[in-house]
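Handout, page 2. Input:
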Amino acid sequence: MYNRRGELRQKIAFKVAIPIAILILTLIFAFVIINTATAGARDTDSPVVYVLRIEGTITEGTAMDVQEGLAEAEDAHADAILIELDTPGGLVESTLKITEAIMNSKVPVITYVTPRGAIAASAGSFILVSGNIAAMTPGTTIGAAMPVSIGISGRKPADNKTVKFFAEHIASIANSSGKNATQAKLFVTENAVLNADKALQRGVIDVIASNEPELLRIVDGREVNIDGNNITMRTRNASLHYKGESARSSLLKLLGNPQIAVILLIVGLYGLIFGFMSPGTYVPEMIGAICLVLSLYGMGLFTVNMFGVLLIIIAVILFIAEALTPTFGILTTGAVMCLIIGALILPKEPLLFDPRWFRGFTITVLGIAVASAAFFFFAVGAVLKARRRRPKVGAEELIGRITKAMTKITEDGGTIKIHGELWNARTRGEEIEKGAKVEVVAREGLTLIVRRANDRGA
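Output:
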């Protein structure tokens, strides 16, 4: 009997296992066939172009995003990489990381200023000329790549040594990618600016195209040099793969912006100080600590002038001191000056930015200073108002209160109730019936002097 049961189980298992095994093998076979067919179609019929977008301020997050995109395109054996540009510039070190990654890419890179009205200013010019093929949309602009620094007197060119270095560096990049090195140097030394037509005439770019399909059609069949090997571009009718920003690169892009770093630093300091002044809620301290940590991390992504950080801290301390010991604006004036100077000199490294960015940065700093001054002037007003208010202690705080007579009140005595407590009360000659409204006018020991309230609200 047991043998029969064992044989039955074996037969059932055998009948179930065979179909399952066949199904698994079929799925594996289909997966292999589909992937093989896809790879074959991709290799022979449909080129793949990875599209990366550089937009806004170039920070460490931008560099990370481009590096990740180039590596991903290489791993996927893409036929080309298209980097679309619309940027006013950014941080020097981040820009150098991007150009280095582009120049060492195993996949041909097309740099493209788009859409109409876009710019590749300052740092964007370095990135544009680093591509194997550089292109622009009509109505776009490049140039103004002189490294600058900002300080108390505003924006000014970096020292001659720095300018010469970056002029030679952009010329070296242009030479390696077959662009006009002389014109590229003028972007740095003379802050030269070119539109699409002039950039093509002077050999800074290779193509003018109105849109992506037109660009990919024009560059199809052109040869580019990668590591000494000539590679023919295959981009006609290519399928485009758009790479989105990763969460990490987006966060770094935000925190690495000097404007954001300054705002977070000041908010963090205010949060900590207000939290310590009014303990118990923990909310200001928590927000302040988070903002301070984020600002310190963001400032670690670019070179910071520690004297600027010190001036910002002194400014916050002066604001707080003004609120605690009003000096009628003397400390606030000093705080505003320290805050503006400290914020303006905070970025220490030379920057590759379009002048429009500096205007925005200056407006941000001035806005923070004015808002801080207005807030603390308001705080000073509240402190002075509190100081002028007559102090009231104990029963004296009851003077002026209106309530009801609990009993009949005469000059010999009676009872009223205030704040849930019964008080002895008497009048100065008048007689007040029970339930009438009375007003406390004075105090004699533990007895309150009252009078009829003349129908005023209780």
